[in-house]
Input
Amino acid sequence: MDALRSYVLLVTWQVLRVRVMLPLAIVVQALLAVGIVLGYPLLFPEIDRTTTLFLATAAPTITLVTMGLVLVPQVVAQAKTEGSLDFLRSLPVPRIVYLFADLTVWLVVVLPGVVFAIVAAQWRFGLDMHVSPLVVPAFLLVAFTATSVGYAIAAVLPPMLANLTTQVLVVFVLMFSPLTFPADRLPGWLAAIHGVLPIQAMGEVVRGTLATNAFPLTLGAFLALGAWCAASFTVTSLVLTRRA
Amino acid sequence: MLTIDGVTKTYRGGVRANDGVHLRVGASEVYGLLGHNGAGKTTLVNQVVGLAAPDAGTIVLDGQDLVADPGLARRLCSIQPQAQVPITGLTPRRAIELTGRLRGGRADDARRRTAALADALDIGEWMDTDAARLSGGVKRLTSFAMAAVVPGRLVILDEPTNDVDPVRRRLLWAQVRALADGGAGVLLVTHNVVEAERSVDRLAILDRGRVVVEGTPVELRASVPDELRLDLTLEPGAEPPDPPAWALRAVRENGHRMVVTVPAFRAGDAAGWALAEQRAGRVEEFGLAPATLEDAYVALVGGTDRAEVRDGRAA
Ligand SMILES: Nc1ncnc2c1ncn2[C@@H]1O[C@H](COP(=O)(O)OP(=O)(O)OP(=O)(O)O)[C@@H](O)[C@H]1O
Ligand SMILES: [Mg+2]
Output
């Protein structure tokens, strides 16, 4: 009961805090979504149906992943630098509650991008996709994993390093991840890296639920994401609990 | 109430910030913590609230071990950190009320108490201003109110008077006293020795992580017995005077001020010497007064940051 009360109060606090940057975040997500559906086709000489489907389903994944892995760590790193993280840590609120409240707010911030991306893709490609009801848990899981991995990056690394990591990640996600193209096009070493990272699984669950007629959905991808989610959540709460 | 015993803290990298610190703060007591920059004051209070863990020693509040249970420490203590609390996106009213409720206060109590603090600190006109447009002093007072709205058994204030104007500083000290009158212990870090002398019940001076002296302001002042301070305002452009041979210390505070400490029985000589210097055109003004806590402080920790003019001219 106490935990629930603290949770609601902290969500209120953080919503007021991010409210300032919410319009900007939404604009960035909209641009990102439009950029993907308009920009990526330029990379391909001719666009067949599979390519189109890949691009259409990659758009929401990419906005989610970049928001989670770039925006979240940057804002959390800033909170760490300016001391608001330490102040909230000095309040009598269990760390888990604090982390859940923060992640809830981040979910709300990153989810508009999904809507933009799906709308933009439909508008550009006009596909008929067979959407599975599993799409809701799939998106929530991807969003939660991306934000909690992003949070963990900021929690573990010093702010400067966290910001640098996000710069590298954004290029990696946009260019070198099997979201806009099938994984079998990856060279062996990169495929090995993606075998461990959660990005490929994010692409798979989104594709597999947004267009069931074209892509398979595997339990393995869900499990991999669940594991990443749990691991990053654990790491973050340990870091938040640690005393200097 | 709060008992700190043998607390030692070495940061990774080897800085020993606290070295066997002992302190006792009673309920309804305002306890001052003084000491040079880097003396280890913030490190000490961070260990009390569980933001840092000591390597050795115990911190006990009302019989409960705070080191073993940092969650309990956060419930029992409220803290105003030394760094400005960023309340981006909030107004002071929102931030104070939310903090009060997160500290377990009921919504209407938090609202009432926030309004009362705003009045008492005279910041009412900025209570609904967005944080980005607040002045430094109002931010500082807001973060004091956040620590005071639902005070812990122990209220920790790390340099609460920084950035605050002289009038509101008095209002702030009155609220600090009110917290103690309400039964809380107050552990207050400050560099303002003059205000501390007037406002704290007891104090400790930390020097490189160790408590060098602890007691009431009167006891501490008495540790430099029978001394007088002769404050000199120097004539601009003139050669500064040579302190007399019987002076105990002479400290050049800045370009045109010098403080000469003399034994009390030399009061007459001191006045005569200063008058002569004034006539010789080297001194503009002077005043002779009993030693203050600041003198005791400087004598105890050494005026390392000021130019000594005892032997030859100061740089
Ligand atoms: N996180 C940290 N890691 C390593 N060393 C630290 C850390 N925080 C403080 N120190 C060092 O510990 C010593 C004590 O620092 P502390 O902040 O406690 O001093 P302070 O008495 O509060 O000083 P001030 O009056 O300037 O606020 C300093 O030498 C400081 O450099
Ligand atoms: Mg300090």
Observations:
- The domain at 224-314 of chain B is CATH 3.30.70 (Alpha-Beta Plaits).
- Residues 166-181 of chain B form the longest helix (16 residues).
